[in-house]
Write a structure and sequence with these properties.
Layout (H helix, E strand, L loop, with lengths): L1 E4 L5 E4 L2 H15 L5 H11 L4 H14 L2 H20 L2 H8 L13 H17 L3 H14 L4 H13 L3 H16 L1
Helix pairs in contact: 1-2, 4-5, 5-6, 6-7, 7-8, 8-9
Length: 181
Amino acid sequence: MSVFTDQRGIAYTAASQDAVDCFDATMDEYTHFGTATGERLKKTLAANPEFSMAHALRGCFMQLFCVPALTEKAKQSLAKAIAAWYRGDYNGVVEHLLPVRYSLPAIGGSHAQRDLFHQILIAAALRAPRPALARALLGECTRLKPENAWSWQRYAQALTAAGDDAAARVASDRASALLAA
């Protein structure tokens, strides 16, 4: 994964510029009330199956639909992910949780419970090992909650696993500073 910018100059961690361009096209289609939004999003995910922002957008779309079947799909995915975790099938956990992670509010639970499922997804990505995915998920976490030492510690792990030792040291130092405060 590398950093690429969209047509507005916003930086994304993605597999390629093509994936970011596809994401741009998806957003343009959606904001112009186009009928090909879903197809463009599928193309984005085909270009980069682990593109966090594309999964975030997919989750938002699922929420907008308010379709009971999507809520049921999220519940089933969570149950399968937990079973995979207990079997030690961390890739299975990722495969079940990643597509529904933004659908979790639809099935209820507290913020803490939803955070737990995100932590399980991250831990599974680290154990699978899928360092690029873990790095992307934790990059998002540290931007959303910059004062969370747990996220910075895991981010350092993911960066080390991805071979970015300099950034891992920065993340580790940030975690230490937060824990010392």
